[in-house]
Design a protein that fits this description.
Chain lengths: 109, 152
């Protein structure tokens, strides 16, 4: 895929309890519990399980996410994705097949 | 899944690797069963069944339990490794090292204690064998704690 831009991929066996902060794309294939702050794109891959409050630019969920999300641009829950929590973002996409429970606030004004 | 590893294969292994990029900061606790490359900052206790590589830009401030470790960056904390720990010429470390094999390269900076467990013989296992072979000479005189070797 887009292998040339710098990204950190936290592999499927990686488990983190705590806080992650970064200014590069982040792909999560393992388990994260805690808090994630990113200024770039965050992806929860299909094997990823995240229980965290998230602040990011873009978020794509193909795995499982429990927690509230604030995104400055866009949140997408893809068709294999499952999410429980509130979303606050100007653009929100929930794909056909995705599971979602929570509030969505797009800041309509 | 190795697609994200900026395709460099710097360790020449086909096994999965997680590279924590230079802008990433992790705090808390981290567990993994794959090789870890740290280019960012990790203030999280790391326990891994595989190798850990702290690159030049990497900073770790925490205690660590891994199979093996190579430090080219900065590590502050205690390290316990099953196999080996190597501090590269540009590596800096403060803390205690426990591993059967420890290499400190010329140029490396280190402050701390080193414990190469199987100091006498290549006896891998715990001092269970040493108990019958030769009783430890540091028998505490009048110490209230029993010699560890007796306790099986």
């Amino acid at each position: 895929m887009d292998g040339d831009k710098s990204a950190t991929v936290l592999g499927p066996t990686v488990e983190i309890e705590g806080e992650i902060e970064g200014e590069e794309d982040l792909v999560i294939q393992g388990r994260i519990q805690g808090k994630i702050v990113s200024r770039k794109d965050l992806t929860v891959d299909s094997s990823g399980k995240v229980e965290a409050s998230i602040t990011t630019k873009n978020l794509a969920v193909s795995g499982m996410l429990v927690g509230n999300v604030t995104a400055t641009e866009r949140v997408e829950v893809r068709k294999e994705g499952k999410m429980v929590g509130d979303i606050k973002a100007p653009r929100v996409v929930i794909a056909d097949g995705a599971k979602f429970k929570g509030n969505i606030e797009m800041g309509v004004d | 899944m190795a697609k994200g590893d900026n395709g460099k294969a710097e360790n020449g292994q086909s096994s999965t690797t997680t590279a924590i990029g230079p802008t990433i900061v992790i705090k808390g606790k981290l567990r993994s069963d794959e090789d870890l490359i740290v280019k960012g900052r990790v203030e999280a206790e790391i326990s891994s069944s595989k190798a850990l590589l702290v690159e030049n830009s990497g900073i770790i401030k925490a205690n660590i339990k891994v199979k093996s470790a190579r430090i080219s960056g900065v590590l502050v904390g205690n390290v316990t490794a099953e196999e080996r720990v190597e501090i590269a010429p540009d590596g800096r470390m403060v803390g205690d090292l426990t591993a059967p094999k420890i290499i400190i390269n010329d140029g490396a900076a280190f402050r701390g204690r080193i414990d190469m467990q199987n100091f006498d013989e290549g006896a891998e296992a715990k001092p269970a064998r040493a108990a019958e072979a030769a009783p430890p000479k540091h028998a505490p005189s009048g110490g209230d704690h029993p010699p560890a070797a007796v306790v099986k």
